[in-house]
Design a protein that fits this description.
single chain, about 110 residues, mainly beta, OB fold (Dihydrolipoamide Acetyltransferase, E2P), five-stranded mixed barrel, disordered C terminus
Length: about 110
């Protein structure tokens, strides 16, 4: 992935048209060959306010839009509603699906 285009996760919605995206990159240490993970947060322009917390998005470098905002939201890969399970839905399932115990989450 180039420095002009990154893939990350929305971690915060600051104001109208501004979101914070966390980009994670992994690389191998040159001497010890251990995998190292580094994260960086970018302020991203979301023109139509379509980004929600937890969405996996693609961002693209653009001209400076403000002092710290140099990135634009290009597309959404995975919506947060697709990857998170509502804990309240577990109560509605029969106990046979939850296991042999009678424990039901509150």
């Amino acid at each position: 992935m180039s420095k002009i285009e990154q893939i990350g996760v929305i971690i915060k919605i600051i104001q109208s048209n501004t979101i914070v995206v966390r980009v994670k990159r992994e690389f191998s240490h040159p001497v010890y060959s251990k995998r190292i993970t580094r994260t960086k947060n970018y302020l991203v322009h979301d023109q139509y306010n379509i980004g929600k917390l937890g969405d996996r998005v693609r961002i693209n470098k653009t001209r400076p839009l403000s002092r710290k905002k140099h990135w634009k939201l290009m597309s959404i890969f995975l919506l947060s509603s697709d990857k998170w399970v509502n804990p309240g839905s577990l109560i509605e399932q029969p106990n046979s699906l939850l296991g042999s115990t009678n424990w039901v989450p509150a």
